Amino acid sequence: MNRQLLHTPEGVRDIYGDEYAGKLSVEEAIHRQLNLYGYQDIQTPTFEFFDVFSREIGTTPSRELYKFFDKEGNTLVLRPDFTPSIARCVAKYYLDEDVPIRLCYMGNTFANTGSLQGRLREVTQMGAELMNDDSPEADGEMIALVAESLLGAGLKDFQVSVGQVEYFKGICAQAGLEEETENELREFISAKNLFGARALLEERRIPQAFSETLLKVTEHFGTALILGDARALAGNERSLAAVERLEKLYHVLCQYGVERYVSFDLGMLSKYNYYTGVIFKVYTYGVGEPVVKGGRYDRLLGHFGKNAPAIGFAVVIDDLLAALKRQKAALPARRKAVRLIYSPDDYEEKLSQARELRRKGQETVLIPERQAGRKGADCE
Q: Are residues 295 and 232 in the same domain?
């Protein structure tokens, strides 16, 4: 046999045994928390039409999509992100609904990135989306749900970093930046590359006063106290409204009792251009990437024909598991299987016991006596 067939392509891997059992326990814990908040499960296709993730919508760049064709010649893609799929689905099935819609999901996403640097091309995500509610209370519910889901999954040491896209956009508009310049600057600011940002602003001949204000955005990170400094720097109504929104959000988070997990970073932006207001990422030690990403996307559903505000988040389960392992955190407890060892003489009796235990919801394994001491026979 060709041994090459035993290996997976670069960027994907098998998960089995204790590792997969741990993954299931984490998924079950998070799913339970999502349901406690009233979020109902939804499943969307693994692949969609290319236009669902087009540049106009502001999602993943085309070069990072896995693209292929159906027999009619339509371009299809493996989903790189759940949010546009959920938005399409809500616009189709909940077009006339104006009450809050709460949905949650779980599945794999696919990113055709060139430089993996140890990252996977296929990862499992779980998340929640709240539509038809544009209030600070909705923002607070989403971030509180993130914190409580991570705590339920066994993660104790993490930080939810909260930003506001409108703060940055307000200053860009005030400075008269064109969309192309704003997008380039967004990448530099996101990477905390002040040298690149300064060079870009000088190249585009942006007045020094506005350039300095834009560069100072990166200095506004820390506790809720930094919101006062951000307010003083905001020289336009759009940015000022963004700060006021964050202040209201912080008040809601204090009512939930999760404020100790929250910090603010007005220099935090996202590669997804569909975000319109509050955005957030969760960081923890042991992994280099955020284990959760989310934010408000009040215009995304409009691309699919439904004008409705929305906010959501996605937990990258694979990264969360890596963090839990490196922090030696205890995973949510799962019931262990009962092992019933049988011989030819008492097989019927042990089978009867197993059926009764399974009827009561207890996982039960029947093991032949001759195999009881072998490696792999213990299925607990």
A: yes
Total Cβ atoms within 10 A of residue 168: 24
C-alpha span between 128 and 273 (Å, rounded): 19
Which CATH number fits the domain that encloses residue 52? 3.30.930.10
Confidence (pTM): 0.88
The reply to whether 331 falls in a domain is no
- Based on the fold, state whether residues 239 and 346 are members of the same structural domain: no
Residues 44, 93, single domain; the answer is yes
Within-domain flag for 226: yes
Share of the chain above pLDDT 90, in %: 67
Positions of the chain with pLDDT under 70: 1-3, 58, 114-118, 373-380
- Same domain membership, residue 46 and residue 147: yes
- Pair of tokens at residue 135: 């209030």
pLDDT of residue 380: 42
Do residues 296 and 364 share a domain? no
* CA end-to-end span of the chain: 33
Within a domain: residue 49? yes
Is residue 154 within 8 A of residue 28, CB to CB? The reply is: no
pLDDT of residue 220: 87
**Residue 2: per-residue pLDDT:** 63
Q: Are residues 183 and 90 located together in one domain of the fold? A: yes
Are the beta carbons of 364 and 340 closer than 8 angstroms? Answer: yes
pLDDT value, residue 219: 85
Q: Which domain holds residue 97?
A: 9-326
pLDDT for position 118: 67
What pLDDT score does 184 carry? Answer: 87
Angle in degrees, CA 43, 148, 29, rounded to 5:
50
